[in-house]
Please model this.
Amino acid sequence: MSSDREKRKKLRSFVRKVINSGLDIRLEDAKKVVSIGKECLPILSEFLRDEKNWETMAKDPNNISPLIAFCLIGAIGAPEGLDDITYSVRKHMDDLDPVEGFISSVMASCADGRSETLLDIALNPELDNIERMTCLEALVDLSFLNPDSKSRIETRMVEYLNGPSVDPEMKGIVVSSLTDMNSIAYLPEIEKAFSQKQIDEKVITLDFVNREFADENRRDHLKEMYQPPLSFFEPSYIQSLVSEEEEDLDYESQISEEIAELRKNFDRMFRKTGKNEPCPCYSGKKFKDCCLPLIDERKRIDPIEDHLRNVIMEYVDDPHNKKSREEGIEHFDFGDMIVMENEVQLLMDWYVHDFIPSGQVNSVIEDVIVKKRKDITENEVRILQSWSESVFNLYTVISIKKGIGYTVEDLYLNPGKKIFVADVSSSLLLRKYELLFVRVYDFGVINRFAGGVVNAPYSLKHSFITILNDSYDRYLKRHGYSTDSGDRETKRKFLKEESRNLIFAFIESRKMWGNKRLVTPEGHDVKFCNGVFQLKSERMAIKLISSNNSFLRSDDERKIFFNWIDAGSRISRSPPSSRGEGKQELMIENKVLIPGSEDPKFKDGVTIYGNVEINAGTLIISTVSEERYAALKALLYEVLGEQIVKNLMEKFTEPEDKETDLDEPLEDEGDEPESAASEEDSEWPSNEKVREALEKEMILMNYSRKWLDEKIPALEGKTPREASKDPNLKEKLRDLIREFEYNNIDKTFFVIPMIKEELGIEED
Model:
């Protein structure tokens, strides 16, 4: 007895060691587990069904333990393992991406004698389509591995094809499976289904079926495509996973490895800072009185937030909620939009919080609170209740603590209210005065964004406010409220019930703004270009750049900052004939006067071609065109030489493409019809003067003291000095200055503090 117990203990220890070997897994060890066979299945099953192991893999890209257990069960190929495999496919399809090419073969290897199990799943209209399609692929592999099973598989598939189910897409996939199996004997049934319009021809056409059946080498093709589960452990495949991990974005955090490197730099800096030392954010406060409490609070709430998000997603993914999901997608209706990751996030955010399925009274998150209460603590219930009451709202970013988070100002529901959002990744990428239409989760000291977000340049503030106000007026009339009703609860209800319509209105408004073409004086398209480089010696880099006449140093108390003022012949010029057509061309001229300078070359002002910042051992460069960026980068490599150790990150975004770590790329910007740009049809005519003032007065003019005494149409013909003394115009003046800061890539130069001081406008 004791020897058997010792044997089982050693076996368990060995199998778990193999499972936990991660990307260092050896083919020899995998083969040994397979040679032992069924005895290993209980250990593999226990590991595969433990949700903690999947959660660990999601947080650690080098940990592929569940994938190893999954493929080992397939390589053993015992029918007893099929339930564990289908469980993994049902609950963790997204996590199985690295073994995508092996899923069908793993299922097929465990389905010998159990083809009915896969057929029951594949042909069940109540189940998720992805799971059903995966089972169909496995059945094709099974018919290849075990020809004796083919007849029964074909019979069930043809019965479904001729049956009452009205699902042209799935029937098309079944026809595709029959075609892959070379089931030419059932061609009449397939032709009949096509003639009765039961097949979605976007999935497969009859011509394609006939061509495939005419291929005499069909079985050879299947043999070439089939991947035995054990081949997952081949060194070449494991190495490809390692390479992909080095190149790909981390899916969970959706940040690049370069951003991860920046995060590490900030983490190191914060760890090395003592509680009583000055805070690394340059606030002048002690670390313990500034950022440290925010960091500690973020660490405290992270696991709570992760757990609650998982609880919500498990509920959403439950097969019983399939009809509700499909109804939500239909109601959201992407239309002709190209569906990007940010639209999916916006859909999910809206579906979980604001959508009420037909025949129900609760939203998804309200149902989660009721039906998943046993899986969460009372504190988590209170947090979910707070989330369920949250609404989309319009904010602008007014200050950023790199590596910690940022402060946003409420522009609609509670105008002027400021809240701090703790988010490391987006703090590295967001720009000051970015507009965000987003739902905020309140955690007390800090806040978090719920998910999807519509980003936009600050120039669209008045457009977005107009959309909100007009929509709110229509909402009040539709529900019989007084049109002057402005109480906060009614507005909250409006934001919750109209969130879907507002999201699309903002996206359309942003697309209209994107129809303008901004160019530099050299004739190049404006593109915000940013690069981050690791330095060997910060002190030496500062010395070398300071001694070069191409750069003008302009420090403030928070950072070392240089303006690139002498481009010489480094930047090529674009001939007019090469410029795009169909868009209004607006030229950005960034020329500033140097206060108090006696240098003759500065008397008419100096053009800023790019900016250089040195911070925390990194060199950060920014320009407004790719041509300027390439020239500045080349110049800095000449000046600094081996002081530049490593290229950490390069990012290039269009003026209207506010891509961030929240994964918010814009849709493709197609040319709008001419009527869309007319004054009558414009969604935001009241913003025309503001944009005209910004573009023609703020961008095209020299940014100098002279501007303070220019009459500005958007300020009702008054000068900024005059407007600063008029309570009715002060807000418009502040918006103009914010737009200017936003459009200069968050590099405020010394001219902004000077303008604000002259006008008596307080700093944020």
